[in-house]
Amino acid sequence: MADGKPRSLSPGPGGRLGTLLDDAVWGLRAYGFIVAMWVRSTMAYRASFLIMLAANFATAGLDFAAIMIMFAQVDALGGFTLPEVAFLYGTSCVAFGLSDLLLGTAERVGRRVRDGTMDVLLTRPVPVLSQLAADRFALRRLGRVIQGSLVLGWSLTRLEVDWTPGRVALLASMVLCGAAIFGCLFVVGGAFQFWAQDASEVQNAFTYGGTTLLQYPPTVFGKDLVRGVTFVVPLAFVNWLPALRLLGRDDPLGLPDWLDLAAPAVALLCCAVTGLVWRAGLRAYRSTGS
Amino acid sequence: MDDADGAFIDVRDLTKTFTVRRRSGLLRRTATRVHAVDGISFVLRRGEMTGFIGPNGAGKSTTVKMLTGILTPTSGRLRVAGVDPWRERTRLVRRIGVVFGQRTTLWWDLPLRDSYGLVRRMYRIPRARFEENLARCVELLELGDLLDVPVRQLSLGQRMRGDITAALLHDPDVLYLDEPTIGLDIVSKARVRQFLLTLNAERGTTVLLTTHDLSDIEQLCERVVVIDHGRLMYDGPLAGLHEVGRGERTLVVDLERELPPIEGIPGARTVRTEGPRQWLAFPASASAAPLVSRLAAEYPLVDLSIREPDIEDVIARMYAG
Fold first, then answer.
1. pTM, two decimal places
2. What are the pLDDT digits (tens) for B147-191?
3. Which of A47, B101, B117, B212 has the smallest set of CB atoms within 10 Å of its CB?
4. CB contact under 8 A, A125 and B109
5. Measured between CB atoms, does A4 come within 8 Å of chain B?
C-alpha cells in the first residue's frame, strides 16, 4: 500500500505536464477509494440493493418494450429490422449506462453550490470532480448496463455480420467512446451550473434525450435534426455512424466513410474540451462565490 | 514556512469585490459592485487563538473563504503558512482544518468511522498517526459510542464534535471554525470549548474562529478581530473591545404588578417597560449582584434574568461612538 507515504509537496521533475499527470492519477485513485466506500456501504443492505437494481433494470427495459410493441405491428422501422434496432438500442444503452454509473452525479453542481457544500469539496486535497462524481456512487445504475447488454447480446446472435477482428474492435470502441462522450456531457452540464445553477434540466435534455434518440434508427428522424445532432452534439459518433458501418448501411447524410472511424478522436477531443470547460467553471465559481 | 517576522497568517490590504447583476427591467440588467471585503490587514502568529467577529454580511465568511483557498481575492496579499491559498489550494488544504458550523464536512449517509476512513485516504495520513489522532479526539470529545452511527442520525452537538475530529485527523497547523457552537446545548458548548483550549495548548494549533457568541470569545480567545462592512474595525484584546464598544448588559425584571419605571438604582437606567416587565441597562463591566439586591429590597420582584450584550450591539456602539 502506498498509503503510508505522504506525497511530496513539490512538483515532480516532470514539470507542468508531470504535475498534471500526477494530479490526474491522484484524482482517479481518489475517485476509486470514494466509490469503494460507497459500494461497501451499499452492500451493507444487500436486499435493498438487489431490489433497487431490479427496479433500475425494469425501468430501463420499458424503453425496449416500447420498441417491441412497435415491431409487433410493422416488420421494419425506417428500413431497419428488429435485430438492427436492438443493436442500436443495446450499444447506446450500454454506453449511456456506463457513463451514468461512473459520472452521473457530476451534474449535482447547482445543488452543491446552493447548499454551500461545494465549499466543503474545495477544502479537501482531492480534485473536486473526483469527489463530485464519486459521491453517493449508485451501483444500482448497473441495472441499465445489464439490460442494455442483454439486448445487445441478443441482437448479435441475430445479425448477419461477419465478425472480423476489426469489426469487433469497432464495436468495443463504439461503446467505450460513446460512454466517454456521454460522460463529457454530464461533466459539461455540471460545469455550466457554476454559471447558471438551474441548468441541469437543459443538460438532461441532451443526456437522457440523447440516449432516447440514439435508440432509434436515424432515418426515422428529420434530416436537419440528424445533422444537428451530428455536429452540435457529437452524439452520432457514439452510435449511428459506426453502427451503420457495422450493419453495412449507407448513412442518410452521405458523409465520407472515414468519419465512421473517427469516434476515438472525437471522444478524446470531447474529453479535452470538457476538461477546459470544467476548469473554467470552477475558476468562475472561485472568483464569484455562491 | 513562517515569514521572517513570525507571521503565520498574513493578510495585507485584502479585498474582494463581487459583481451582482440584478434584473432592472424586462430585459435590462444592472450590475452593482459590492465590496464584500474592503482592504483588510491583520497578522496571526503561530499558536494564536483569535476570534473573528462582525455582524451578518460583514465579510467574515468571504475572508475565511479566501484564507482557505475557496475564493480568489480581488486584490491584496495573502499568505497562510507561507502558501498563497488561492494558487496552491491542494497544497494548502493539507495543512489546514476547516469546520463549518452550519453544514457538515462529513458524509451524510456514512457512519462516522467510514467518514474518517475516507478522510485518512484523502489526506494520505499514515495509519499509525491516524489511529493515534482519532483515539485522542474520540476520548476528549466523547465520540466512542457514536462511531458507527450514520451522520444524519447525530444530534447537532454530536455532529459538531464529529466534524471537529474530521478536521484534525491530519494534524493541521491552522484550524478555521465557522460558528462552532451555534445551536449547541450548554454541555456540548463546554465540551467543544474545553477541547479547543486543550488542542491549542498541547499542539500549538493556530485557531481562527468566527462566532456570534461573545462567551465563546471570552473563554477561548486572547485576541479579537472585528470587521464590519468589509473593513477592519478593531484588532486587539477582548477587554478593549468592551471598552471601545461600551457594552451594556440588560436586566429583565418581572414585577408583581405594573409600576412606573424603576428609578433611583445607581448605575442602571430603565430603557423599556411593558406591563409588569421592565428592562434596565447597566455597564457590562459592573457586577449585577448589588443591583439585584437593591431591586429586591425596594420592589416586589417576581423574576429576573440578565442578557449579555451581543456582538451586534457592541459593534453598533463602536460605530456610533
1. 0.79
2. 999 898 999 889 999 999 999 999 999 999 988 888 788 888 888
3. A47
4. no
5. yes
CA distance B251 to chain A (A): 39
pLDDT in tens, chain A (290 residues): 334 444 444 444 456 777 888 888 999 999 999 999 999 888 888 898 999 899 888 888 888 888 888 888 888 887 888 998 899 888 888 988 999 999 988 878 888 888 888 999 999 999 999 999 998 898 888 998 999 999 999 999 998 888 888 888 889 988 998 899 889 988 988 888 888 765 555 666 666 666 666 666 666 665 655 555 555 556 676 677 778 878 887 766 666 767 667 778 888 998 999 999 999 999 988 877 64
CA distances A140 to A100, A136, B233, Å, are 11, 11, 55
Q: Do B118 and A116 touch (CB under 8 A)?
A: no
Q: Shortest CB distance from A9 goes to which of B62, B89, B91?
A: B91
Cell numbers describing residue A56: 433500475
Which of A3, A33, A123 minimises the CB distance to B127?
A3
More confident residue, B257 or B130: B130
CB spacing of A289 vs B62 below 8 angstroms: yes
Cβ separation of A124 and B122 shorter than 8 Å?
yes
ipTM score for this prediction = 0.77
Cβ-defined contact of B105 to A123 (cutoff 8 Å): yes
Which residue type is seen at B34?
V
Nearest chain B Cα distance for residue A16, angstroms: 14
Q: Which of B145, B143, B148, B144 is nearest to B163 (CA)?
A: B143
Residues of B in contact with A30 (CB under 8 A): 121-122
Note whether A119 contacts B: Cβ–Cβ < 8 A.
Answer: yes
Q: What is the CA radius of gyration of chain B?
A: 23
Chain A neighbors of B34, CB-CB under 8 A: none
The amino acid that residue B8 corresponds to is F
What residues of A are in contact with residue B118 (Cβ under 8 Å)?
33-34, 37
CA distance B122 to A220: 49
Q: Does A123 touch chain B (CB under 8 A)?
A: yes
Task: Note whether A116 contacts B19, CB cutoff 8 Å.
Answer: no
CA neighbor of A282 nearest in space, from A194, A190, A186, A184: A194
Query: Is A7 part of the contact surface with chain B (CB cutoff 8 Å)?
Result: yes
Domain boundaries, chain A: 12-284
CA–CA separation, B196 and B193 (whole Å): 5
Helix (H, G, I), strand (E, B) or coil at B98: strand
The dihedrals phi and psi of B317, each to the nearest 5 degrees, come to: -70, -35
Rg over alpha carbons for chain A, rounded to the nearest Å, is 21
- Say yes or no for a CB contact (<8 Å) between A125 and B103: no
Q: How far apart are CA B85 and CA A259, in angstroms?
A: 46
A125:B102 CB<8 A: no
Find the residue in B nearest to A40 (Cα).
Answer: B114
